């Protein structure tokens, strides 16, 4: 394949839907990290067939003015939501999903600023979520052609390695990843990439506790507290530990490897591993532990049993790879409530000859390798998630679907390597595979409330496929292609010839410059009356002595304090629709530092629209604000969310002026 260089224009040329932020809010006062995110123990069931599509309600022409809402209709939507497994149409606004349902239900939401796109029966589903990859820490392969000739014609500037690798992921429909093995230098680069606006996939950093050879890395990771949110694209996921070899040295197994490799390398004693995980859990971190051998797997299972002590795994501690599973360990996963991370694409070509494997499992133990059918059946309802571990395996999501459901693999010439009978017995269903690659992986990243399924309120991270995986023969799954990839409502990849599926010129709910530095204002008095004064207010959390009412009491000496780190939010009900002419936020924050706040507005009965995003350095007593070029009409609810802050979130006052006051 011809080598080419690639450009940022690939990501921005369709520039369509403006991405929005995560649910959060406020400003800050210093305190330690909060509790880990909790969620359901079991992800939703796989989708089931839906009834035939109804004849759609007529769609109105694409508006000539600004577009705030996009509706895809007349498609097959695989939602990954067990309450509504399939649908026909979806509406997207402000980077979020606002409706999922029948053609008639969703097209009924058309307004003058709505664009409608006919899917013509195509399949739309949540973006794929890769729970464990090395996307940003791997040098780009210049031989990997990621852009079509159409896209190359739009090129302007060269992509760096991080952007190049994200482009590959987006081409294959991957919208979110767990970035594994992030060391100090890489962490700084990823944060800088996000601040520069070049992080296009939702990224969850997993920080290195040791390296692949078992060498401890010190406590550098403490500079990145558990669950810290930098933006809607970037957050701290947890900590990565290697328990045995494979990346370096040899996997720890109970049998003898041939070639003089023995039983492999176990890096720590049981007591040492127990102490590591217990300490990290006390600090609030999710822990992900690498295991390739059954001896290290047993040790990890023992550790989880000790550290969790029979309690639910609310931290969602994970076991990575699960490559060699001894039969007596199979049903222990449920007892420890572990989150399982498993491969899709399988190296069948190595197993069937013609290639030299690094570690050769003796024939009598090969049934222990990746026995996923037995693993799932032995642990019904336990969450399990897909990972590519790229560049260890391919990022091509169709090959992972193919590998899950057939255990076949294509070699470098495109020939099929057929699995032997014991290997083929480990296949999973297409419904199980799709669940693992969407809501299951989102659960593993503790982001299943935001991504992984098509539900109102979640981010509009979605893809359009060339075929329906549920009705495609397993042998043909490898032919399915991603036609469009959307992240936060923005079309980030569009296959040549499918431009009609990719909204253009769309700015959902955003002003011309919705992302800006904080606008410093005088703290004394706003011009006009403060319509927020004394109104009903709710918040994501509060300390007992600093309730949310203090943010709208007119007293700058008092403050609402959330009692927790970002993300946090505060919502004001103005009691009746008003035309908003200005929003001012008086900061309560110590220490000073970089903050990101999103101001949302909502009409009665409508979804929230992003009014502005404020990013910059803020300090206690400073006033920051948003003044739209034109008043925002009929706003009754204002929500202020904070997605990045150096300390607890708080506001001295939130003041809103009605236009014309």
On the 0 to 100 scale, the average pLDDT is 83
Beta fraction of the residues?
Answer: 25-35%
Radius of gyration: 25 Å
Q: Which residues form runs of ≥5 with pLDDT under 50?
A: 1-57, 145-158, 505-527
Query: If helices are DSSP runs of H or I spanning 4 or more residues, what is the number of helices?
Result: 13
Give the N-to-C terminal Cα separation: 64 Å
Largest sheet: 9 strands, mixed
- The count of strands amounts to 29
Structural class: alpha/beta
Helix content: 10-25%
Global geometry: globular
Descriptive notes:
This protein is an alpha/beta fold and 661 residues long. Helices cover 17% and strands 26% of the residues. Strands 21, 22, 23, 24, 25, 26, 27, 28 and 29 form a 9-stranded mixed sheet that branches. Strand 11 (234-242), helix 6 (270-282) and strand 12 (286-291) form a beta-alpha-beta unit. It starts with 8 loop residues before the first helix and ends with a strand. Residues 1-57, 145-158 and 505-527 have low confidence and may be disordered.
Features:
661 residues, alpha/beta, eight-stranded parallel β-sheet, 29 strands, 17% helix
Secondary-structure topology with pairs:
Elements: H1 9-12, E1 69-73, E2 76-78, E3 86-87, E4 89-93, E5 96-101, H2 103-107, E6 114-118, E7 123-126, E8 128-133, H3 149-153, H4 161-171, E9 174-182, H5 184-195, E10 202-208, E11 234-242, H6 270-282, E12 286-291, H7 294-308, E13 318-321, H8 332-336, E14 339-343, H9 348-351, H10 372-378, E15 384-387, H11 397-406, E16 409-410, E17 416-417, H12 421-424, H13 430-444, E18 462-465, E19 482-487, E20 490-494, E21 515-516, E22 536-539, E23 560-561, E24 568-587, E25 593-602, E26 609-618, E27 623-626, E28 632-644, E29 650-658
Parallel strand pairs: 1-6, 2-7, 8-9, 9-10, 10-11, 11-12, 12-13, 13-14, 14-15, 21-26
Antiparallel strand pairs: 1-4, 2-3, 4-5, 7-18, 16-17, 18-19, 19-20, 22-24, 23-29, 24-27, 24-28, 24-29, 25-26, 25-28
Helix pairs in contact: 6-7
């Amino acid at each position: 394949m011809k080598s080419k260089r690639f450009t940022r224009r690939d990501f921005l040329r369709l520039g369509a839907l403006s991405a929005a932020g995560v649910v959060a809010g406020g400003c800050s006062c210093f305190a330690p990290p909060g509790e880990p995110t909790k969620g359901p123990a079991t992800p939703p069931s796989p989708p089931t067939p839906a009834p035939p599509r109804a004849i759609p309600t007529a769609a109105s022409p694409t508006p000539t003015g600004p577009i705030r809402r996009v509706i895809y209709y007349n498609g097959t939507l695989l939602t990954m939501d067990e309450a509504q497994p399939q649908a026909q149409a979806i509406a997207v606004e402000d980077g979020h999903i606002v409706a999922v349902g029948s053609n008639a239900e969703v097209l009924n939401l058309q307004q003058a600023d709505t664009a409608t796109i006919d899917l013509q029966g195509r399949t739309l589903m949540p973006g794929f979520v890769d729970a464990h990859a090395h996307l940003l820490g791997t040098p780009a392969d210049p031989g990997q052609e990621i852009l079509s000739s159409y896209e190359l014609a739009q090129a302007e500037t060269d992509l760096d390695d991080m952007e190049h690798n994200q482009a590959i992921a987006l081409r294959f429909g991957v919208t979110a990843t767990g970035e594994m093995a992030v060391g100090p230098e890489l962490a700084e680069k990823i944060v800088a990439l996000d601040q520069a606006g070049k992080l296009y996939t939702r990224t969850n950093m997993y920080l290195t506790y040791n390296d692949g050879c078992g060498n401890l890395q010190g406590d550098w990771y403490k500079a990145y507290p558990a669950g810290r949110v930098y933006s809607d694209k970037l957050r701290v996921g947890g900590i990565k530990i290697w328990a045995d070899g494979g990346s370096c040295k040899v996997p720890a197994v109970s049998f003898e490897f041939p070639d003089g490799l023995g039983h492999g390398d176990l890096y720590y004693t049981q007591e040492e591993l127990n102490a590591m995980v217990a300490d990290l859990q006390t600090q609030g971190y999710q822990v992900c532990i690498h295991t390739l051998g059954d001896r290290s797997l047993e040790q990890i299972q023992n550790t989880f049993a000790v550290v969790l002590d029979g309690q639910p795994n609310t931290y969602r501690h994970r076991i990575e790879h699960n490559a060699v599973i001894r039969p007596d360990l199979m049903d222990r996963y449920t007892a420890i409530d572990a989150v399982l991370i498993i491969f899709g694409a399988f190296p069948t070509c190595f197993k069937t000859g013609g290639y030299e494997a690094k570690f050769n499992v003796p024939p009598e133990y090969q049934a222990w390798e990746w026995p996923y059918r037995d693993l799932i059946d032995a642990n019904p309802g336990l969450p399990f998630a897909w990972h590519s571990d790229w560049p260890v395996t391919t990022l091509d999501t169709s090959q992972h679907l193919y590998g899950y459901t057939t255990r076949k693999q294509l070699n470098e010439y495109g020939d099929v390597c057929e699995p032997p009978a014991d290997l083929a017995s480990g296949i999973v269903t297409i419904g199980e595979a799709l669940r693992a690659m969407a809501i299951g992986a989102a659960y593993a990243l503790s982001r299943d409330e935001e991504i992984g399924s098509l539900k109102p309120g979640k981010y509009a991270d979605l893809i359009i496929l060339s075929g329906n995986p549920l009705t495609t023969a397993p042998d043909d799954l490898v032919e399915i292609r991603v036609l469009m990839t959307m992240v936060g409502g923005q079309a980030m990849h569009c296959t040549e010839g499918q431009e009609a599926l990719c909204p253009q010129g769309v700015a959902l709910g955003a002003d011309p410059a919705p992302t800006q530095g904080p606008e410093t204002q005088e703290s004394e008095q706003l011009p006009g009356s403060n319509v927020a004064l004394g109104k009903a207010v709710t918040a994501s959390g509060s300390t007992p002595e600093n309730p949310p009412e203090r943010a709208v009491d007119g007293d700058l000496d008092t403050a609402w304090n959330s009692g927790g780190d970002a993300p946090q939010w505060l919502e004001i009900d103005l009691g009746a629709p008003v035309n908003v002419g200005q929003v001012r936020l008086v900061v309560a924050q110590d220490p000073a530092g970089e903050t990101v706040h999103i101001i949302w507005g909502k009409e009665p009965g409508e979804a929230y629209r992003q009014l502005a995003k404020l990013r910059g350095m803020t300090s206690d007593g400073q006033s920051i604000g948003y003044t739209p070029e034109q008043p925002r009409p009929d706003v009754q609810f204002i929500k202020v969310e904070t997605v990045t802050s150096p300390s607890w979130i708080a506001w001295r006052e939130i003041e809103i002026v009605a236009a014309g006051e």
